[in-house]
Amino acid sequence: MTGGLTRRGVLAGAALAVSSCGGGDAPPARGPRPGSGVGLLNSVLALEHATVAAYDALARRLAAPGRAAALAIARQEREHVARLSEVIAGLGGTPVEGRPPESYASSFPVLDDAADALLLARDVEERLVRAYLDALTKLPAGPLRREAAGLATSEAEHLAVVQGLQGQPLAAQAFVTGTS
User: Domain count of the chain?
Assistant: First the structure.
């Protein structure tokens, strides 16, 4: 036994929690282990929630091809929210909830046109890339780092799409770091 988090372990824990609900027995008392990465992952999850709201807002400012790309990215960001929530719960933590979309809107810049919308998209993607790369250095080795690396890769792909919509090179440098 390695003591690391495995997909089977997460699923087994989730199955145990679900099977213990509603039967009159309290679910087993359990919380996140110190150093498990739950706090760090919840920080990234909060940023993912804000990103979903940003894409929902900015998609309305884009014409057909850009709007379709923004909506596709928003769907993938929702998948990231679901995946991070699953991982956090599997570690014994409580995933942070997203706020209502209108509560995020006050923190977004004014989106007068498509150029403004794409600047917001680029900003949130750069922030996510940086957040995941930072998490990689702080998470315990093993499955959690692989998960963060996979999500960082997805965010780098989103950033490339946004840069393409801005008429810029998809990757201005060899390594995407989340800084322009």
Answer: 1
Establish if 23 belongs to a structural domain: no
Query: What's the Cα-to-Cα distance from 10 to each of 47, 77, 143, rounded to whole Å?
Result: 23, 21, 11
Q: Are 128 and 155 in contact (CB under 8 A)?
A: yes
Q: Is residue 87 in some structural domain? A: yes
Residue 130 tokens, joined: 């940086």
pTM (whole model) above 0.90: no
Who contacts 157 (Cβ-Cβ below 8 Å, separation ≥6)? none
Segment 64-103, tens digit of pLDDT: 999 999 999 999 999 999 999 999 999 899 999 999 988 9
Q: 87 with 41: CB under 8 angstroms?
A: yes
In angstroms, the Cα distances linking 93 to 8, 33, 178 are 17, 9, 28
**Residues spanned by the domain of 118:** 33-165
CATH number of the domain encompassing residue 40: 1.20.1260.10
